[in-house]
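Q: Second attempt. The first request was missing the SMILES, so the protein and zinc ion are both included now.
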Amino acid sequence: MRKSAPAALALLLSLVMAACLPPRSAATGEPALVLNAGTGDDASDAYEFVPVPVGAASLLGCNGVEAVSAPPVCQVALPSAEEDSAFRAEGRRLESHGLERCRVLGGAVSRSVPTVRMYSKALIRNVDGRRWYGVGHAYALGDVWLVRVARRLDDLNGRTLDEMKRTLRHEVSHTLGATENARGEWTADDYANGCA
Ligand SMILES: [Zn+2]
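A: Got both inputs this time. The predicted holo structure:
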């Protein structure tokens, strides 16, 4: 049991991670330049990022990685007061949404908010000449879902609260069983867009 549980978690993690990396730029492999006036100067250094808990570090491959070179998944921070407030408000908004599915999502968002943590920036991967920005992440540790939201796209580009709330809807929908690919049910992106 000791051996099989981490393997199952790792598989789930890779599935979810792979699924949460939306394409930003198809042709050049360069990052899309996203200018968000007012958020680009918001130094993430102002927030305290700390290593993820031991169990998560093992799951995420963070053990033995120097902090300075660790990928964003290895360090998390509490949401700022502004982010926390926006996430809570998003949960309340969704709980009174016109669509039943969005109300269910809203309940899940409200329950998730206390444990949501921030990444300093997106996880960047280059696949087949495309650059993918993983702006959010949801993974299970034991039977607990952990929801993560990237505060910035990269060093140059901040993300707006609306973009972070979209990520929150997408990631929390995974905790309800939503996948990236439609099988007659709403996908995570359907939740992210349909409940906007
Ligand atoms: Zn996803």
